Amino acid sequence: MSKVSDKFFLENMNAIEVNKIHNSKSIAFILIGSCENHGNHLPFGADFLFPLNLVQLVLDRIIKSKSDKAHNFIVLPVIPYGVSIHHIDYEMTISLRFSTMIRVIEDVLNSLATNDVRRVIILNGHDGNIAPAETAARNIKNKYPEMVIACLESWWTLVGQKNNNTFNVWSGLGHGGEAETSAMMAVRPDLVDLSLAPEQTIPNLPSEDIRIYWKFNELTKTGSTGAPRLATPQKGEAIINILTNLILDFIDKMESNNWKYGTAISNTK
Ligand SMILES: [Zn+2]
Questions:
Q1: Cα atoms in the 13 Å half-sphere on the side-chain side of 204
Q2: CA atoms within 13 A on the CB side of 72
Q3: What is the dihedral of CA 128, 170, 248, 80, to 10 degrees?
Q4: What is the domain partition of the chain in residue ranges?
């Protein structure tokens, strides 16, 4: 199955195509996920499969709506592993250490910088990658101040905040929960088996404001939390809509200011 956006994936390009596309105005997407148990109803790759499909949908929309605008998009090959040490008690969790993950992201960013790519959007699909992505990005930003590194850190919390009417329980939250299961139903329905989804589990935690660094098997017996049985493809479409709009809006704003922000653009009105 070949999509229009396929030509923006580095793994599909040859050297001539790559040379046409990488420059200081290129926008590179780094996709990071995990390989871990998401309950009986979702695949181990859910955390990278969703960003991978999301970026395709974003690019498809850009291509359709703005074919006159020659954006130089480069989607890097997906990084399928992440920091999953909090899921390590479940079967076949393949986890990188924090130090490894920081270095992987740093090395990828560094490689982009040495190829003159200065505009980067990280699409993250997994909570354990939030801290390493920030550490890596800040280190590289320190080394290459002219680089712009942005990150969609936590789409699964964002979609509930942006549109609380979409979800019935716990703002859609949960690992393999209402939002995550719906998202997978929208992009890879062939990999979702809702008949195996566990009953609703809302972790019993004392506070939403003070974070406990739990291990996941302290929260649930199933590898999944939230309310996956309430997932629907329609909710998944709503999620895609929210995220696609948000990413396109970000790119539009950045492009209109030549990827400058803050004091680099006028701050007087
Ligand atoms: Zn995850």
A1: 3
A2: 15
A3: 30
A4: 4-260
Model confidence pLDDT, tens digit, residues 92-122: 999 999 999 999 999 999 999 999 999 999 9
Q: What CATH number belongs to 4-260?
A: 3.40.50.10310
Rounded distance from Cα 36 to ligand 1 centre (Å)? 7
In one-letter notation, the amino acid at residue 63 is: I
pLDDT digits (tens, 9 = 90+) for 194-248: 999 999 999 999 998 999 999 999 999 888 999 999 999 999 999 999 999 999 9
Q: Distance, CA 250 to ligand 1 centroid (Å)?
A: 25
Give the Å distance between the CA of 191 and the centre of ligand 1: 16
Compute the distance from residue 224 Cα to the ligand 1 centre, in Å.
Answer: 10
Whether 159 and 242 have beta carbons less than 8 Å apart is answered as yes
